[in-house]
Predict the structure of Putative ABC exporter.
Amino acid sequence: MVSLFYILRKSFKNGLKQLVKKKLALLGYLVLYGFMIYGAIIVYRGKSGEGINPTSLQMYQSIMLGLIILTVVPSLYSCLGKISTAFRMADVNMIFVAPYHPAKILLFSQLRQAAQSFIIMIFMVIQAPYFTGGLDSGVSGFFLYGFAWMVLTLSISPICTGLFIVNMRLPKLKRMFKTLIIALAMSLIGYVILGAFGTSDPINGMLSRASSDWFLKIPLIGWYRSIFDSVAFGFTWETLISLALILLLVTTSLIISFKFATTDFFEDAITQSEKTEEALSAIKDGNQFKNLYKNKKARKVKFQFKKAKSKVILEKQLLEMKKKGLFLFDIKSLFIISALILVGSIVPQVEEIPSVKLLAGAVLLIYFIVIIVNIGVGKTELNKHYLYLIPDNNFEKLINLTILEGIKIFKDCFIGFLVVSIIFNENIFHGFLCGIILFMFVMIQSFLELICSKLFGNTQTQMLKGFIRFIFNIIILIPGISIAIAFGLLNISLTIALLIVVLIYLSITLMLSVPAAFSIKNPEFN
């Protein structure tokens, strides 16, 4: 067992040495922790002493419930098939070559998984000021919020491992567990959605149900919710009981895992380990959606290359899209259009804000595109050698490399905005302008990916590069937020406000195109 801890200690030291050599990466981590400290200061200074804002509390509890469900339910369901913990091939191979009991190898994997969970916890803690605003929780609430995320991220992995081993030894329970998890998820979501009906304010109706104490009675999900509620109410007896129950469940899962984790368990984990390696490789290459199309058969299409120089890159991307979709229409298109229609049906009309349904849909997509999904051209295209051998201007290469994804997003958004405008009698021109703004954001994401790849290369984690893009995106969003505030305070016409936003982000796109074009000048990365 000493050797396993030696591997962990040596890996940590090598990571620190590499970080010291990479000054930009070190700066990125310093900025990350700086944002954590800044978040604590903002939350502390925001403590007014006036008590908890009921609306903010409802919003906070609803968002946390959604994040808990999105974390717990998929994890529990996936571990009923193949093991869902982040095993790597090195862990599995160690079983058959290292002179250790399988339980010790499992403990080694869980410790390394805990380090990865800690990084996720840091990313969520950075957003504490946005989630805890209005709770009047102060700096203690900030630390309780971080503690709640630490409990969630560290406990779910051993729980899933224990459930997987129980399912492996008692396969007859598999169908029952799957049915129970699906029924639970559908019941929770259905209960919240039904709150939108029979009321004049659908959003408040759903928030009222999502923040209901009824969820505290649900095992595991309710326990996590109770710990997150401590940010607003402090540590209560309910919080302590929930924490004790989670600790008991984790301990039981670890005992089961260490007692019954034989080589059969790791043989079954090999398949999932291969998928894990493939997924991590795809993320590192910037191809986050690789698994989305993995099992999708390519259609046979007739296609002839007619262009020359860098325009061939654009034709190649068109050919790949035609094989996987129907004229730039795929599953992402369906998601975007459906999301816009859903938002349009939920958001109520506001007389003071014209085209409020279109604006709400645009804000939602900006959040998904910029903060969560990071849609755009990834490093996959940068690894293609022909990109650097084509004798063409760097700016033309850049445009042909990135323009198609932007056009596709604009097309999806405009169709969604058009449908919402027709159904709910909104201004179609406002939808057109929102589509252009989203097009600009996608182009900005592509340029940021190229710039970050040039700065960081393959030596740093995708998590750090994603965090740097996140910081850039926050800065880029400031002009749009400022215009939105001016629109509300100065009664500026919405059309004029949207045109100003378009011009601002057009300028930002043009400015970022210069370093992005430089980044594809040669294939050498730091």
